[in-house]
Amino acid sequence: MLWRKRVTAIASEFPDVELSHMYVDNASMQLVRNPKQFDTIVTNNSYGDILSDEASMITGSIGMLPSASVGESGPGLFEPIHGSAPDIAGQDKANPRATILSAAMLLKYGLGTENAAKRIETAVTETLDNGFRTGDIYSPGTTLVGCKRMGEEVLKALDSQK
C-alpha cells in the first residue's frame, strides 16, 4: 500500500502519463496477452525480476532486454535482465544485445545523453535488420554469429552512422 500511495502521489505531478495499478498476477497475464499496452512497468525488485523474465520470451530471448533500477540520487544501475549464463561462459554464445542496450539506457536515463543512446539503439536495430543473430534467436535465413562477432557488427553499424 505504501508503494501504491507513493506512486499515486507522484503521478499527480505528471498528468500526461497514464497510471494504472495491477496485481502482479494480472500484470503477468496482461503482459502475455497484450504487451504493447505497456510502455513502462514500475514494481518492486522481486516482481520486476519475474515480469522481466516473462517479457524476455515475448522478444524471443532473455538476451534481448536491458533493465534499469533508478532513483533520485544517482545515475542508477543499468544491466541486462539476464544473469551471467555460466553454462555458456567462454563459448562465444551469449547474446550481447541486452548489455549493449543497457549501456544505451545508462546514457539516456543516467547521463542525459539521448543522442548517444539513440545511436546505439539504432546500431542494434540495424544489426538485426541486417540479419545477424546469436544462437538464442537464430532462424533459417539469418546469419548465425557469436557474441564477439555480434558486438563487432553493432560497432560497424555505429561507426557507419554520420
Automatic annotation (TrEMBL):
Stated name of the protein: Isopropylmalate dehydrogenase-like domain-containing protein
Family: Belongs to the isocitrate and isopropylmalate dehydrogenases family.
Keywords recorded for this protein, A-Z: Amino-acid biosynthesis, Branched-chain amino acid biosynthesis, Leucine biosynthesis, Magnesium, Metal-binding, NAD, Oxidoreductase
Organism of provenance: Aegilops tauschii subsp. strangulata
Pfam family, any one: Iso_dh
PANTHER family for the chain: 3-ISOPROPYLMALATE DEHYDROGENASE (PTHR42979)
Domain Isopropylmalate dehydrogenase-like, first and last residues per copy: 1-154
Family matches, as InterPro entries: IsoPropMal-DH-like_dom (IPR024084), Isopropylmalate_DH (IPR004429)
Keyword Cell wall biogenesis/degradation set for record: no
GO molecular function, one term: 3-isopropylmalate dehydrogenase activity
Biological process according to GO: L-leucine biosynthetic process
